[in-house]
Design the sequence.
């Protein structure tokens, strides 16, 4: 491969790496927001009131799988 082709390939690789880093940073930011939203919801009355129903559903599914 000639120098111009190698330089173009290196520039393209660097561009892709930069884009990958930007997307990884955005994903991390969105995951943080999801975690925060999840924590906020788990602190609500609705979450606490429906906890027994969710537990019963998990138990029911577990019993069906084992039986």
Sequence:
């Amino acid at each position: 491969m000639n120098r111009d082709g190698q330089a173009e390939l290196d520039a393209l690789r660097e561009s892709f790496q930069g884009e990958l880093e930007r997307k990884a940073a955005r994903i991390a930011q969105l995951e943080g927001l999801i975690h925060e939203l999840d924590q906020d919801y788990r602190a609500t009355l609705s979450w606490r009131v429906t906890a027994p129903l969710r537990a019963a559903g998990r138990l029911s599914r577990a019993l069906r799988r084992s039986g």
